[in-house]
Amino acid sequence: MPDAESTPRLPYDFFATAYSHIFGPEAAGATWQALEQLLLPELEPAARVLDLCCGTGELAHQFERRGYHVVGLDNSPGMLTRARQRAPRVEFIQADVRDFHLSGQFSAVVSTYNSLSHLLTRGDLEQCFSHVRAALAPGGLFVFDIYSERAYRERWRGTFAKITGQDVCVVQPSFDESSRTGVNHVTAFHRDESAGALWIRTDVQLVTRCYSDDEIQAHLAAAGFKNVEHWEGTYGLGIAEASERVFWRCRVE
């Protein structure tokens, strides 16, 4: 295994502090509302759940607090450091969602907040779906969300900012229709008390791919999923804060 100094840092390693303080908690509320409709009624008490692209652990913590046996998986050491601080009793694993192998099977796999759009090729997405299917027990559910095509075309522009007591985050989203690529240009400032209350600046680009509903449907079918359904966050599920996202649910037979 490469040592820490030789291992390249991933974009979310640089962004982990701002994500943990701002975006993770913000997204978790709307996401949990969706899971209360699409997943929780289907789960047995203490069911085993895999949180794929778990980030800084907000959802994993919610599952753990409600008695589920949850495992969180992410490829970013920086995000996982904060996840372990937030939910110390949860098992967190660093792995690539395109090629992961875990012991045992799960009643459900979830992946939320547009995480899977960071897989930039259709082959990557299909590999991920195949590994998810292998991780699920018979009858298991896969629930995930991804930004809609409409959201990329209509809302990925301009500039917006998020501010907390110790963090300022400025985001400039852009979308290229020809390559179907979205980029968030992020400038984050964190007030570091351990460094004499200095403001530490981080600049990072987060690249995603806009997948059509037909592409997602085809790759789920190729991976062997059945009973595929999807809902728009606001009009389908009534969650105002999830207007950009489409939630998908499918099952292993």
Overall description:
This protein is α/β, with parallel strands linked by helices. The chain folds into two domains: 11-148 and 210-252, Vaccinia Virus protein VP39 (Rossmann fold, 3-Layer(aba) Sandwich); 151-208, N-terminal domain of TfIIb. Helices cover 30% and strands 34% of the residues. The chain has helices at 11-38, 58-65, 77-86, 122-135, 149-155, 213-222, and strands at residues 48-52, 69-74, 91-94, 106-111, 136-147, 160-163, 167-176, 181-192, 198-209, 226-232, 245-251. The strands form two sheets. It has a seven-stranded mixed β-sheet, with helices on both faces. A four-stranded antiparallel β-sheet has the order 6-7-8-9. Strand 2 (69-74), helix 3 (77-86) and strand 3 form a beta-alpha-beta unit. Helix 1 (11-38) packs across helix 3 and helix 4 packs across helix 6 (213-222). It is globular and about 55 Å long. The N and C termini lie far apart (37 Å). The model is unreliable at 1-7 (pLDDT under 50).
In short:
By secondary structure, this protein is α/β, with parallel strands linked by helices. It has helices at residues 11-38, 58-65, 77-86, 122-135, 149-155, 213-222, and strands at residues 48-52, 69-74, 91-94, 106-111, 136-147, 160-163, 167-176, 181-192, 198-209, 226-232, 245-251.
